[in-house]
Every structure is written in C-alpha cells, then in structure tokens.
Amino acid sequence: MTGYFLRRAAGALAVLLVLSVVVYATFYIAPGDPARLACGPRCNPEQIAQVRAQLSLGDPVYVQHWHFLQGIFAGHDYSTGTAVLHCDAPCFGLSYQNNQQVTDMLIERLPATASLAVGAMAVALLLGTATGLLSALRRGGITERVLTWLTLAGTATPVFISGLGLLMLFCAYLAWLPFPAYVPLTEDPEQWAWNMLLPWAALGLLESAKYARLMRSSTLETLAEDHIRTFRAYGVAERKLVTRHALRGAVAPVVALSAADFGSMFGGAVLTEMMFGLPGIGALLVHATTTLDLPVVVAVVMVTGTAVVIANIVADVLYAAADRRVALR
Questions:
Q1: Which of 187, 213, 223 has its CA nearest to residue 132?
Q2: Which residues face 86 on adjacent strands?
Q3: Which H or E run includes 76?
Q4: Which of 198, 217, 203 has the alpha carbon at shortest distance from 129?
Q5: Measured over all CA atoms, what is the biggest interatomic distance in the chain, rounded to whole angstroms?
Q6: Which family does it belong to (predicted)?
Q7: DSSP string, 121-134
Q8: What residues have CB less than 8 Å from 17, skipping those under 6 apart?
C-alpha cells in the first residue's frame, strides 16, 4: 500500500507539473500581452512597461514559470502601485480587476461549490444505484423498460432544462420551495439545505442517469459470473445472493467513477451555479473569462486539475476496497 501511494504521488506531481506548464504557456505566453490586461485599457506605454517589469514578463520563459511555481509553494511579493503586498502560499497572484489575492477569492467561493458537489453526488449515487439495481433485477419486464427510458431521458436532458423545469414546478407553480438564494452553512444550516435542494436535484438527476446505466450493466455482469451461478445452484436465496455476494462487486465501478466525477465537479458545474445564482468557483471562472482576468482563470484551472488528479487516486483506492479481486499495484 505504501509503495502504491508513493508511486501515485510521484505520478500526480508529474501530471500537475505538466499541467502547470501547459496552463502557463496557454495564458501567459500565447499571443497577447498580460501586462496590458493587468494594467487596464487606459494605461499608457510607460505604465504598461512598469507592470511588465513588476510581473517579470521580461525574464526568460523558464524563469517566469519558475516564479509562477515558486509563488504557489512559497508565496510572492506583488507591487500594487501604492504598496508591496505579500501573497502567502499557495499564491496564484492578484486579480487584474481588484488587486485582491486570487487565493482569497477561491477560498471565499469554495464552500458553495463544495456544497453543490457533495449534495449532487449524494443524490446521483442514491438514485442512480437504486435505479440501476432495480432495472437489472427486473430485466425483461415492464419495470426495466420504464427505467431504461427514464435513464435515457435523463442522459439527454441538459441541466439548464431540468433546472428550469424544477424552478417552474416547485417555486413558481406549486410554491413549495423559495427561489434559491445561497445561504452559507455556518449562518443557517436549515436555510442552506432548503436553498440547495433544487441545485442538488438538477445536477444530481443528470449524473444519476449515468450511474444507473453503469450499475445496471455491472450488476448483470456480476450476476452472470461463475461463483454467483454456483451459489444459486446451492440454493442460496436470491435476496441474500444479491445483497451479500453480487452487490459489492457490482457497485465497485460506480464508486470509482463517482470519486473521479466528484473532482471534476469543482470546475464543471458552471451551468448549475449560474442558473441558481450560486457564488461558486464555476461562476467565478465565467466572470474571470469574460473580463480576461488571467490569474483567476489560471488558479481555477489549476485547482480543478489538482482536484481531478487527487480524485482519481481516491477512485483507485475505493475500487480496490469495494472489490477484493482488484489489487493495488
């Protein structure tokens, strides 16, 4: 186990290093002038040259990238024109729009994204695994046909369609829920939960269709294995056969995929955050892209990439824990 984690940690660091090179080259070395973006449209050439010197854009490319990595792990000093501001590690620089530390902006937005990701994943797993398992156990019947059509409809329905439908049904027509307005968990847990129900349902319904299809195929494959047929031949009850012997192997791929998807949700739930007005990382990325705020865009991409890499390691471990036939090598 220790050797496996060391190898995966080394591989993760290599992937993140390559990601940092690609991200830095894409946003800071590609055609365009970061100094002009940081200074603003009203800056004269002298001011742009001053900003370029402050950002060390005149140094060789490898030196610029080293300063970028150094800022992430050790912090950096930035001149704002009136004072020198020290940015503690991890430091992704200062926003071009308000000179605020990008790290502080991410920390401020992270709770909303984490709330959405955790709740939506719980809805997707509960609904998806239950639907997929029931569809596999009722194979060939009317139940399977109905669930299969519902799963296909859920896969084909974009989140902005399902989200709009939920808003119209539960907020406008039935008036069972208030229109979502994000409330931090630390301020009012009850209002936080009520306002997050519809975002969880909109994103969770979309993801649950994928898990339902995977759970159905995995369950059918597991039930067709030799040891299951042997247990059935010895007269083991079908319910005991499924819950005690088949379910653990069938759920392993779902667990692994959910762990990987959870990492990608930190930057991939943009439409859900924008539709329900959640002040999350996805909404921050959209705003930074429209205003060409490069440090914020780079930070979101790096944080999302790191979350995906870590989630894939967790997915491998959970897969091995769920299925004893899999060995960590």
A1: 213
A2: 77
A3: strand 76-79
A4: 217
A5: 86
A6: Belongs to the binding-protein-dependent transport system permease family.
A7: HHHHHHHHHHHHHH
A8: none
Distances (CA, A) of 179 to 164, 182, 228: 11, 10, 49
Q: In this structure, are residues 116 and 199 in contact, taking their beta carbons and an 8 Å threshold? A: yes
| Chain centroid to CA 325 | 29
3-state DSSP call for residue 60? coil
Q: HSE on the CB side for 115, CA within 13 Å?
A: 25
**What's the burial of 62, exposed, middle or buried (CB within 10 Å: 0-12/13-18/19+)?**
exposed
DSSP 8-state secondary structure symbol assigned to residue 56: T
Whether 65 contacts 56, CB under 8 Å: no
Tens of pLDDT, residue by residue, the chain (329 residues): 677 777 878 888 888 888 888 888 887 776 566 777 666 667 777 777 776 766 666 677 778 778 788 878 777 666 555 555 667 767 787 887 787 888 889 999 989 998 998 999 999 899 888 888 888 888 877 887 888 788 778 777 788 888 888 888 888 888 888 788 888 888 888 889 888 999 998 888 888 888 888 888 888 888 888 878 888 887 878 777 777 777 877 888 888 788 778 877 776 678 888 888 888 888 888 888 888 788 888 888 888 888 888 888 887 777 766 666 655 55
Cα angle at 164 between 161 and 170, to 5 degrees? 135
68 close to 20: Cβ distance less than 8 angstroms = yes
Long-range contact list for 180-183, CB < 8 A, 24+ apart? 180/276, 180/277, 180/278, 181/277, 182/112, 182/276, 182/277, 182/278, 182/279
Rounded CA separation 54/64 (Å): 12
User: Can you spell out the DSSP letters for 214-283?
Assistant: HHHHHHHHHHTSHHHHHHHHTT--HHHIIIIIIHHHHHHHHHHHHHHHHHHHHHH-HHHHHHHT--SHHH
Q: Which two tokens stand for residue 166?
A: 């939920």
